[in-house]
Design a protein that fits this description.
- The complex is a heterodimer.
- By secondary structure, chain A is mainly α.
- Chain A is 78% helix and 0% strand.
- Chain A has two domains: 94 residues, Orthogonal Bundle (Rna Polymerase Sigma Factor, Chain: A); 66 residues, Winged helix-like DNA-binding domain superfamily/Winged helix DNA-binding domain (Arc Repressor Mutant, subunit A), CATH 1.10.10.10.
- Chain B is 61% helix and 0% strand.
- Chain B has one domain.
- In chain B, helix 1 crosses helix 3.
- The chains are: A mainly alpha, B mainly alpha.
């Protein structure tokens, strides 16, 4: 389904509901996995994904035809993830390392986690990164987005993103090799 | 462990969901959007009804039970911020008719515009009431 078709339905008040249904179908899986990789826990990812689409629904009337649906939805999802993790830190007055440790424990607990040893190690290594670097790594490595697209979503220059990504790759490789 | 090269080696994420998860997620998203629409219909009415109802409850509580040591329900309600009250109302089945049911003048309460017009308050008085009850009301909306 082309984004342009979905946008044309969304921008017409008479077909907005239909357009939103198409949008949910087209994006729910991608957004869920994007969120899940950031918050690790399925229930949290489930709740946040629904919240993202509620916000998308509420924002449809202000959506501009010249915007990219793809980057707009990802930006909302990304902000929701970062807000969620920040709230977690504020609520328990814990430093980021402790939030990462909590998320790492969820991986160990194994609820909704499969995969082999290397897959688990990779996730634990990713959790050692700062949140925004984690976000960049996930979008580039797993979602195979272009740096231009990540730049539109995060508002960071492509140069900074490339540096951040390559630094993240090195840190993760070192962690997995030396652990 | 032997050195890995992430640029050459693709390692998948280990997360899993049940097979029918995304079918169910789609309908749950639609349900939440429908619920959100209903709230959009009711909330403006409740917003108008909540503030004067709380004032009436507080006034009745103050007149009838002035010297009780235990805080009255009206005093407890007065300690809540408007956002807490709105959050509560959002997640309960209470509607404007329920609120009107406990009011002494339900017809007046259900007709928000007349009620507001009948309240003769100076801006200073209104500010004082809003400060007293920690109510975050957008004056421009009035």
């Amino acid at each position: 389904m082309e984004d342009s078709f979905i946008i044309s339905k969304i921008l017409n008040e008479d077909t907005r509901d239909y357009g939103f249904n198409l949008l949910v179908k087209a994006y729910q899986e991608r957004i869920y996995w994007h969120v899940r990789k950031m918050v690790i826990d399925h229930d949290d990812a489930d709740d946040l994904t629904q919240t993202v689409f509620i916000k998308v629904w509420k924002g449809l009337t202000n959506f501009r035809a010249d915007s990219k649906l793809y980057t707009w939805i990802y930006r909302i999802a990304t902000n929701e993830c970062l807000n969620f993790l920040n709230k977690k830190k504020r609520r328990f007055f814990v430093p980021i390392n402790d939030v990462a440790a909590e998320l790492s424990e969820k991986i160990d607990a194994g609820d909704g986690i499969g995969g082999d040893e290397i897959q688990i190690k990779l996730q634990k290594a990713i959790l050692k990164l700062p949140e925004k670097q984690r976000l960049v790594f996930n979008m580039k490595y797993f979602d195979e987005m272009k740096f231009d697209e990540i730049s539109e979503i995060t508002g960071t220059s492509t140069g900074a993103l490339k540096a951040s990504y390559h630094h993240a790759v090195k840190k993760i490789e070192d962690f997995i090799t030396n652990d | 462990m032997k050195k890995i090269n992430l640029e050459k080696q693709k390692i998948a994420a280990p997360f899993q969901v049940s097979e029918d998860y995304f079918d169910k997620l789609e309908s749950r998203i639609q349900d939440r959007v429908r619920g959100d629409r209903k709230r959009e219909v009711y909330l403006p009415v409740l917003k108008w009804a909540t503030v004067p109802t709380l004032l009436v409850i507080f006034a009745i509580g103050y007149l009838i039970i002035p010297n009780q040591e235990n805080p009255s329900s009206s005093e407890l309600i007065a300690q809540l911020s408007s956002s807490e009250i709105l959050d509560y109302l959002e997640y309960t089945d209470i509607n404007e008719y329920d609120i009107a049911g406990i009011s002494g003048s339900p017809d007046l309460l259900l007709d928000g515009e007349d009620m507001i017009e009948n309240i003769d308050l100076e801006n200073n008085d209104l500010d004082q009431i809003l400060d007293q009850f920690d109510l975050e009301l957008n004056i421009e909306e009035i």
